[in-house]
Amino acid sequence: MRPRVLIAMTVYNGRAFVPRALSSLAHLDRDVADIDVLVLDDHSPDPGWSDELGAICEELGFLSYCTPRNLGIPRNVNLGLLAAIEGEYDHVIISNSDVVYSRQTVSQLVRAAATDPKIGSVTSWSTNVSVYSLPNADPDAHLATQDRADWVGSVLGQRFGQRVLDIPAGISFAILIPTRVVNDVGLMDPVFGRGYCEETDWSLRSLAAGYRITLGMGAFVYHEGGGSNFEAGLLSTGQTTVPKNERIIDMRHPEFRRQIGEFLDRGELEQVWAEARRSLVGSAATSLGYSVTVGWLPQSIDQSRPHVHVTPDPESLTAVASFAGFELELPLSATRPAADLVRALGATPTELNLLDRGPIAADFNDAFSETAVVHRRQPYPSRV
Amino acid sequence: MKNPNTPGGLTADTIARVSLEQALIDVEVANARVVDLTERLTESAIEIQRLRAEVERARSVTATVLTNLRFLRTPTSSLRRLARAVLPVRVRQKLIRYIR
């Protein structure tokens, strides 16, 4: 039987970003699971917004429910968890509303959860998911569209498939939880008031009950972060958490900060970050082609395809490939840099900008002048 | 409430019922927690009073001991003369270090 998944998206105001999130839910593939969407409007005060939200949901075939008074995040999330139990769903996905789901997200999360019955939660991967964030220079500029989210999701899905990484705590911006685990572990604790840290507490309770807390590296969701919480005054500018709720975590789970430190020290994140960056930049270079600049100074570049900047210092050669805010350092040797580049990215460049006359630039010229469009622009001496 | 019927069998009425039931449970839990916390707060307040009184007593004893020890430093005091007469040098040096 195909698993049934309920996505419970909590909403508080957010006229500027919620429609984009709902549109991405409508766009999800249903290859692996049957998906229903429940939008839980926590009594948004923005005049007319709740009616507007209801109309959008109706059009998309989603169920929406506006609470008669504001519940706060933990209790609104609980409503989603309880609805999933009531509706006899196999999984529930608790979701923020300042997100863009990549098309394969739910399929990947369900596949990941199916790899081990002891998995108690699978958090989606993102560029904004606490310490687990995939590094990106400017996610809001590069990844906030459906096309880009789909592209990242597709590449990460191919690279990581249903692989998961055990992490110290889940993040409920887009987290899948099997409903049998909700039945066993319980609900989010309303002691966290209007919200923040409730999922950390829940995760640690699930861990104590014998479940694994995991990150689904093949499931990508763009997350703007803080959207509804800034609107609600829950966070002030520059804040990323609620200190009084962190104190509850410190009291209840005194080992948690040490566990985070140990997890980060193990270096597993750096390894998967490197894998992800190699796949993302490599995949873009293969499918879109890429340009190379050999020069000492940074250049303004065409951002529609990957770019490699090579600093031609034979003593300390550096090369950085970048695309859509993802950056990848390339290990090029000073003797055969062009060949190393092709080996690292799996393709030859389509454009070559030579801003230097040294041996590194000469090697690139020899290797690619027949196949790439070559520009030689040297209006000034290359170094002061 | 929107969309009275959706795929999956959930309706807005179902969500409203579930929400009400959970709200009532939350109130019961919140009340039980208030009762529990009040008991623990009362016990803590009594414990704090007891510990404060103990600290006061300890402070008072320390003050008396220090006063007596300082008297030892007064060159003309009979206590100092007595101490010089009966206490070994090592003990006297320890006492001097302590009252500095």
Largest protein interface, residues of each chain:
A-B, 29 and 21 residues
Q: Tell me about the biggest sheet of chain A?
A: 9 strands, mixed
Radius of gyration computed on alpha carbons of chain B: 35 Å
What would you call the shape of chain A?
elongated
Distance between the termini of chain B: 77 Å
What's the total helix number of chain B? 3
Whole-Å distance between the termini of chain A? Answer: 69 Å
Low-confidence stretches of chain A at least 5 residues in length (pLDDT < 50)? none
Multimer state: heterodimer
Strand/helix succession of chain B: HHH
* Number of beta strands of chain A: 15
Rounded to the nearest angstrom, the radius of gyration of chain A is 23 Å
What share of the residues of chain A lie within helices? 25-40%
Secondary structure category of chain A? alpha/beta
- Helix count of chain A equals 14
Order of helices and strands of chain A: EHEHEHEEHEHHEEHHEHHHHEEEEHEHE
Total strand segments of chain B: 0
Poorly predicted regions of chain B are 1-5
Average pLDDT of chain B works out at 85
Write the layout of secondary structure elements.
The complex is a heterodimer of chains A (384) and B (100).
Chain A: E1 4-11, H1 18-26, E2 34-41, H2 49-60, E3 63-66, H3 73-86, E4 91-95, E5 99-101, H4 105-113, E6 119-125, H5 139-142, H6 146-160, E7 164-166, E8 174-178, H7 179-185, H8 198-208, E9 212-223, H9 227-231, H10 243-252, H11 256-266, H12 268-288, E10 291-294, E11 307-311, E12 318-323, E13 326-329, H13 337-345, E14 351-354, H14 359-368, E15 373-376
Parallel strand pairs in A: 1-2, 1-4, 2-3, 6-9, 10-11, 10-14, 14-15
Antiparallel strand pairs in A: 4-8, 5-9, 6-8, 7-9, 11-12, 12-13
Helix pairs in contact in A: 1-2, 6-12
Chain B: H1 12-71, H2 78-86, H3 89-99
